[in-house]
Structure formats: structure tokens, C-alpha cells
Design brief:
Length: 397
């Protein structure tokens, strides 16, 4: 049975403590927008997977109770930065398995200011952290410094890429410049100011070679998507709203993440490659068939690594790819038209569903000034250390 997204909604992503609101306020706003977009009521919804990382158990129930008290099953989902896409994957599986005709996937996060710690709890006890093995790879090859640990492991992955392939700081900064430029046209983005490559290089260094304008910020926000069956689409005459989830794949770490001792592998490049291949095999499509991509640019280097993992270019060629203009308007693909995590923001539990919202708008032709002309096929990539990678292919006939 096919699954379709027929409604999406999200809040503006904002710096923590910008608004005097609670996480349930965010979910009420995003969830109501998704239901209105689909033209349905909450009592149509049969199941609700809710993704978040920083709230207590059953916070999903507290959040969606703002939409209605119908007694439907609510599933609390936590998969680090891949939480939102994991909730979306559960929604698709509920529908494709025939158990439900209408599922609401929700993701939210209310975060503290400042950089993340080593795990989703923000703590610094790496001996017991879920990502201790990953940071152990980094420490063995690069040592451990006082800068934020996630910036360290991705910064060290950038250094490895530079050493192996000649990638330059300017090419890394070009990712940030592109995504900040894209976010100028996104009213949901946390940051909407453009920056040149030179300004990005001159910004404060977080962990060499990454500067502040190449790093995703902590953010508050929520997103939601209504996922339904083909018969629900027909019954409610939603064909004009429907975007098909054509294929989806999730992978977790294998020996490939750790055997090489490379930070490039430890931050998830092998997971991303495997998840993408699952999706390409299942859909019969490939990189050349894609029009628009939302990918997990938590740091500029991860966008480059993901170009290679998704097959947009060969290994070591991603720096030259972004520099060529192939991943922006007028190029071969438009990557992160929303501004990506770097500029749109990164409330962990909401990110994966917000990617799906952006791509749904793109495929419907509803993205306004950031619209990718003629977009019919889209790919979302969402990754979390610890680890999980989710790749989703959306299309509209």
C-alpha cells in the first residue's frame, strides 16, 4: 500500500528563549497547520508518532493533547538528530502496513542556549555517553579538546577530507554561504541574513576549520506531517495535495563506521551511503533523477560528505561540486533551499519532518521565492550520531 503526505506544517525555527512558549504550544501551532493543510480534522488521525530528544517520557502525549483528546496511540520517539525522520518513517510504515489510513507525524524541540554536549542529554560524561565509541575514534586520531564535542568530531572529519582530497576552507565556507543565501527567502528560518565566503571564513572559529557560520545553531521549533493511504486520498479527494513517499531507508552503524579510525566514517558517511542505496534500489531512481534535496548540514563538512554519500559526485569531489554552483539555483540540483540546518535552524526532534515539509511545498509548487522550477522528485537526508541515517524519496506525478 502506498503512503502519501497530504498536509504539512511547522513553526518558525527560533533561537531558544526568543518566544515565551512551551513545547506543547509549538506542537499545537505546527500540528494544526498540518491538519488545516490537509483539510482534515484531528479525529481522522489514528496514530501519532512524536519525536523529541530533550523532554521527559510521554511529552509526546502532553504535546498532541493540544490538538485533541481522542485516545489514539501516541509513540514517543528519540533517535538523536534523526528523530524527526524516524517518526515520519514510523508513520509511513503504519500506513504501508495497512494498519492505519491516517497518521500524524510530529517532531519538536525546546532547547537550551549554547552548544550541545556529547550526547542528547547535553552532558559531558563520555564514558557512559551513547556516542562514546564515536568520540573514542576521534580522540585516538586527533585528541580531545575543549571545544564543543560535536563540532570537534565534524571539524576533524573536515581536516581529514582536506588532507586526503585537497578540499579548501573556502569550499567548506561555500556551503555556509549558499545555505545562508537560500534562507533569505524562507520565513520559517532562524537566520535570514546572507554572508559571503570571506565573511564566513572571518567568523569566530568553533573548531578548526569550522567557523560559527558553518555550524547549525540550537533552536526551538516544531513540524508535523499528515501521512495517509491511497484509499484515504481517494475518499477525501486529496489528490491535489498528495506527495508520494516513494521510498525510505534507515541504517545504523556497522563496522564501517569504526574500522578505519576515520572521523569521516564515525560521523556517519557509511550509514548515509547505505541508506541512500536502499532508497535508490527500492525506487528505481538515482541521483540524476533528483530535482531538489534537503540534507543534514549540521556542519558544512557534512553537506560535502553527504554529496558523496548520495552519489551526487565521486569521493573527494564534493568541494569542487559546491564551488561549481551545481547545488544551488541554476545548477544541477538545488540542495537545502530552506537554508538547511546551518541557517534554517536545528531543533533536533523537528528537523527531519521540517525537511519533509519543505520538500512537500517544493513538489507542490508552493515554496514561493525559493521554489525550484519544475521540481517533481525530491530527497531528504537526516542523520544522528549514535547512530541513525534516514533517507526519504518523495515524488509527485
Amino acid at each position: 500500500m502506498k503512503a502519501y503526505i497530504v498536509g504539512v506544517g511547522m513553526t518558525k525555527f527560533e533561537k531558544p528563549e526568543t518566544r515565551d512558549w512551551q513545547y506543547w504550544d509549538m506542537v499545537r501551532e505546527a500540528g494544526a497547520a498540518a491538519l488545516e493543510d490537509a483539510g482534515i480534522r484531528y479525529d481522522h488521525v489514528e496514530q501519532v508518532p512524536v519525536g523529541y530528544c530533550f523532554q521527559a517520557s510521554t511529552a509526546g502525549q502532553r504535546a498532541v493533547y493540544e490538538l485533541g483528546l481522542t485516545g489514539v496511540p501516541v509513540y514517543n520517539v528519540n533517535n538523536n538528530c534523526a528523530t524527526g525522520s524516524t517518526a515520519l518513517m514510523l508513520a509511513r510504515q503504519f500506513v504501508e502496513g495497512g494498519g492505519s489510513d491516517c497518521v500524524l507525524a510530529v517532531g519538536f524541540e525546546k532547547m537550551a542556549r549554547g552548544p550541545l554536549g556529547g550526547g542528547t542529554d547535553g552532558g559531558g560524561d563520555f564514558a557512559t555517553s551513547p556516542v562514546a565509541r564515536h568520540y573514542g575514534i576521534m580522540a585516538a586520531g586527533h585528541g580531545f579538546e575543549m571545544s564543543p564535542p560535536t563540532a570537534q568530531i565534524f571539524g576533524n572529519a573536515a581536516r581529514e577530507h582536506m588532507d586526503r582530497y585537497g578540499t579548501t576552507p573556502a569550499q567548506l565556507a561555500a556551503v555556509g554561504a549558499k545555505n545562508h543565501r537560500h534562507s533569505m527567502n524562507n520565513p520559517y528560518a532562524q537566520f535570514r541574513d546572507p554572508y559571503t565566503v570571506e565573511e564566513i571564513l572571518a567568523a569566530r572559529t568553533v573548531h578548526r576549520p569550522l567557523t560559527r557560520l558553518q555550524c547549525s545553531p540550537t533552536s526551538d521549533g516544531a513540524a508535523a506531517a499528515v501521512v495517509v493511504s491511497e484509499r484515504f486520498v481517494e475518499r477525501h479527494d486529496l489528490g491535489e495535495r498528495a506527495v508520494e513517499i516513494a521510498a525510505q531507508g534507515m541504517t545504523t552503524d556497522t563496522e564501517a563506521s569504526f574500522a578505519s579510525g576515520s572521523c569521516i566514517d564515525a560521523v556517519g558517511a557509511p550509514m548515509s551511503r547505505a541508506a541512500a542505496q536502499q532508497v535508490y534500489t527500492a525506487s528505481g531512481l538515482g541521483p540524476d533523477d533528483l530535482d531538489v534535496i534537503e540534507l543534514h548540514d549540521c556542519f558544512s563538512v557534512n553537506e560535502l560528505l553527504t554529496y558523496e554519500a548520495l552519489g551526487l559526485c565521486g569521493e573527494g569531489e564534493s568541494g569542487r561540486l559546491v564551488e561549481s554552483g551545481a547545488t544551488t539555483y541554476g545548477g544541477r540540483w538545488v540542495v537545502n533551499p530552506s537554508g538547511g540546518l546551518i541557517s534554517k535552524g536545528h531543533p533536533l526532534g523537528a528537523t527531519g519532518i521540517a525537511q519533509a515539509a519543505e520538500l512537500t511545498w517544493q513538489l507542490r509548487g508552493e515554496a514561493g521565492a525559493r521554489q525550484v522550477p519544475g521540481a517533481r522528485t525530491a530527497l531528504a537526508h537526516n542523520i544522528g550520531l549514535g547512530g541513525a541515517a534516514v533517507v526519504t524519496l518523495l515524488r509527485r506525478g
